[in-house]
Design goal:
- The structure holds three protein chains of three kinds.
- By secondary structure, chain A is of the alpha+beta class.
- Chain A has a seven-stranded mixed beta sheet with strand order 3-5-1-13-10-11-12, with helices on both faces.
- Among the domains of chain B are: 47 residues, Uridine Diphospho-n-acetylenolpyruvylglucosamine Reductase, domain 2 (2-Layer Sandwich), CATH 3.30.43; 106 residues, CO dehydrogenase flavoprotein, C-terminal domain (Enolase-like, domain 1, 2-Layer Sandwich), CATH 3.30.390.50.
- Chain C is of the alpha+beta class.
- Chain C has two domains: 74 residues, Beta-grasp domain (Ubiquitin-like (UB roll), Roll); 77 residues, Orthogonal Bundle (DNA polymerase, domain 1), CATH 1.10.150.120.
- Chain C has a five-stranded mixed beta sheet with strand order 2-1-5-3-4, covered by helices on one side.
- In chain C, α2 runs antiparallel to α5.
- The chains are: A alpha+beta, B alpha+beta, C alpha+beta.
- The interface between A and C is large, with 62 and 60 residues.
Amino acid sequence: MSDILARPVRFGSNSGQPVTRRDGIAKVTGAAVFAADNAPEKLLYAVYVPATIARGRVVHLDTDAAKAHPGVTLVMTPQNRPALQGDPSEKPTMFSFRVEVLQDDTVRYAGQPIALVVGKTLEAATEGARLLKPRYTADPARTALDDNESFGFEPEGFGLPAGAEHGDVEAGHAAADKSVDVIYETASQYHNPMETHAVVAAWEGDRLTLDMPSQALAMSCAGYAFFFGIPAENVTLRSPYLGGGFGSKAIPTGPQVLAILAARETARPVKLMLTRQQMFGPVGHRGATRQRLRLGIGAKGALTVIDHEGVAETSTFDDFVEPAANASQGLYAAQALRSTHRAVRLDVGTPGPMRAPGEASGSAALECAMDELAEAAGIDPLEFRLLNYAETEPGTGKPYSSKALRDCYLQGAKRFGWAGRPLQSGQMRDENGLLTGWGMGTALFPCPMFAAEATATLRADGTALVETSAADMGQGAWTALAQIAADSLGVPLDRLEFRAGDSRLPDGGVAGGSGHTATAGNALHAAGSDVIAQLGQIAAEDKDSPLHGAGNARFVARDGRIHVEGDETRSEALADIFARAGKAEVTGNGSAARPPEAAEKHAMHSHGAVFAEVKVDPELCQMRVTRLVGAFAAGRIINPRLAESQLMGGMIWGISFALHEEAKFDRRSGRVMNADFAGYHVPVNADVAGLEVITVHEDDPYVNALGIKGVGEIGITGTVGAIANAIWHATGRRIRRFPIRIEDLLNA
Amino acid sequence: MKSFDLIQPATIDEALAAWQPGASWLGGGTNLVDLMKAGALQPDTVIDVNRLPGLREIETLSDGATRIGALVSNAELASDMEFARSFPAIAEAVLSGASGQLRNAATVAGNLMQRTRCAYFQDPNAACNRREPGSGCDARAGENANLAVLGWSDACIATSPSDLCVSLAALDAVVEIRGREGQREIAIADFHLLPGDTPERETALQPGELIVAVRLPAEARQFAANARYLKVRERTSFAFAVASCAAALQMEGGRISKARLALGAVAARPWRVAEAETLLAGHLPDTDLFARAADAALAGASPSGANAWKIELARRTVIRALTLAAAGTPARMPALPASPFGELAGELAHV
Amino acid sequence: MPLSINLTINGGARNVALDDPRVTLLDLLRERLALPGTKKGCDRGQCGACTVLVNGRRVNSCLTLAATLDGAEITTIEGLSNGELHPVQSAFIENDAFQCGYCTPGQIMSAVGLIMEGSAGDDPERIREGMSGNLCRCAAYHGITLAVQEATRRMAENRREDAA
């Protein structure tokens, strides 16, 4: 069977335009309502008590003291916690994790909720929670990868990733003329969106209304409905805006379940908002990894083998193993490839997907190892990557649906000024005597699609309404999806009303995996196309229409007219079709999901190349990324302004990964000792100096009808390695542990 | 946060009369309110001193000294043109600390009273002799990579996080204090106490005493042409120091005639060593000389945990700060105050 | 301990009866005065999301006890524009200086405060430093710096035009 070539969809007048955000005015005036901004009548406040040990049992809670505090109305502990209808150790959806909701007195990690206090004011509930002063019997905490045995596993579902093996790996090692065998370590990182997880829950009979940030509205409703024994349609979830998510806001969490339970118990609306400190525990994190990379090249520099073993932490009670080694699949043309994963059970909250799960950690190690090998071979790092450029997907031999990576390398290198970079380290100083280094890395991220539905209504007056429960966590769904929808209906953006962020709308799927624009966008496009097809059919059957008789044709809408595809001379104004048909509006439905055969036939990835300049004080060893240039090919870009912002954000996450983020555990208590923004550093404005993004043109006829890949996560990949490689280039030191710290360079 | 009584006295005498054990003074609140939220501090009574009159001026006294009212905000101090010209290292230190918002609220007296950032002090569930005498020190075998390398004891290895105090220490500031017994003064060098066996005693203030001003002697202005503050951090801005140094020199005919040197982030108080200053005097500035001064400044340093690296870093920070001070105070505050990346090209102010 | 304080909030006089001295300015605005535009990001003065102007100066409202503010003039994001967007607000939109928008009210109030302080001018490095008290996890820093730079210039031009 020949390729099913998706018909190239014409660029409309909206897609491709760098329009400003449709929610811009709401966001700059404070009018955008985030979950915790809601304050219904008779609101109560809930605050939970986080465990301060990592393993053991709670033996005492001073509930009398808490209850005696003025304003406290309810103290919920495992002793009096009302029953849940769904078992908290069951997983209501495939992306769920087990939740900690006071089912017993066991403590499995520091930060686990062990009691909940409800009060008339936030101040009362907060102090009530403090007054519980838990006492424990504690067992030794295990929070570092060396604290427990690692184990292998059979791949399963969402949390236990498969590895891969292609070609003869041992032969690849044996054939290597030069090789590296290195171990890289990455730290535990916590998502820390600026908006902490929050919920305002209100019950009316067996109907539940949740104001809650959610990256996956339908899935979240199903999850909460399961715990409370009600049909999913009884849950209304409103999430018009998320204050960031990064993977942490897609699934039900224990604290949010407890708040909903408190609302049911008190028959009052309840607000719960995690403190910043509480973000280091029950709402997921990126698990620490230790990765061994063994890479070999033949005499001419071609890779004979990429052998990538990852060990990552998971919790003692659930499975999510950072799929780091998978970053080595699909990128470089090695004769043999192997990626394997092992896990270590630790007394931590269950890790979860955090922006570029697997790819971020794995790409950091891979790109550094590649740089080490390029150094060993005496080849320029960019040239080394071009030398090992994969024309088809390594291992599988599948063609890429599109791959403009070579253009990314060349355009990025040109903009950065890579040519003439000294091969050796320690060669460059700036005018102030600061050590200066240049490094690069390849960026790669798959482009999945999920399932989504949408409806579109076009009205006779030329206005339109489109609906899908998409989630805007900052990526720009409100804007980019509206641009797609407006094009599908041939209307200007300002005539289009877009309803999203509410679970009562058609299921918009998951805002994750960098697949939301592709998924929800294609559903909207299909819904709009359905409307246009209906109108085209009406016109084709109408002998007064210029489209009469075109019933077998495909119709497209543009600038308020319907055209026969391929015959631009035949068209009619939408308004005329409506008028003659005597209709006020036409509604269409659409859905999207990738056809399995398309996914089978092609390897689908976004690609990019990141170039970094880092300056290092030669004595004080303080580091600063002074320039980052990223060139990315990610299929069709619906809104360049927003896409570039996302890519920049991802690259800054790369700075953060390389130089800042690390949860520091006290090995005795198992508590994160830097569980706040003073101690857990993320970049501030001054950490971001020169930053440039190039979006490289790429047409992809296979990924989906619109040719959209995704830009949400790829920016981190490549960047971490580029920075570490630049630090080596500046200083001659290979630091194989992230984040790279002053003391690492000082001691090296 | 524990409940408390809020008292808002209108005069210093009323404030002093209102004080009782378990009470805390509230200035800008940037440290006290934070620690009350953490549960590390739980005062029964909070005495808001913001309405007290006469504590918000920066004035030059008849003897040439400069007197800074206790309630002058960090931002007001650093942005006072006359003050910043006279005491550039202090302005640079202030501007390298915290954020614009915090500097607007934080007061000079509050900065002197700022508590350690040791995570075990901040965490009420950890053992901390400083917060709870006799409870032990969880930091000794814990996350201590950024804790003290000088002046620490078995009881406590905390550091002072203040930048301002490091620069004040270098310039011999004097702390003016009011108590029910009347007024007294404490030299800044004697104000912050090393932990010893009583880390809970952090300053020389007696219970119920109130800082009313900080004074800089007339001589402190003599360093204006060659005064810098340097602060090594884990990110470019809005971070506490890993190591810092205030260096102030008086130069005569290319030679150093007088030197002042204080280190930050290495001990429970700003660290000043007379020998290091003495050995600089009378010499031409050069790196070897600065290295000897740095060795003298770090004499007796020892790791209190996984922080031996800080000793070497502090040594290098001293050398660099002296090098920068010898080169001269910049004409304009660097874009990134006190940062190794803050250097601006261009002419110097006082060459 | 009932306390009564008088505040001017966004130009309007408010008498606020407080039953609890623990209430911060941030929680007062959000939970008691129906002004939730000001955001809580850390509640500890470490992120800047709660930035408002108190008597014309930017501060972290999470570390300010409301009871100590009797007589103060407060400006929040809700009070920044009167009909027409403030130059900082429009520059934020034009430069895509935000993504999720959660830190944005704090960023904008901080930028307004910084511009009034006058120490950064339109120098990008000084703006970066001056805005470093406001974390943005989406990391829209590139746009924030451009927006503050542009708004600074525009406001200076407006002042010149007003003077002419």
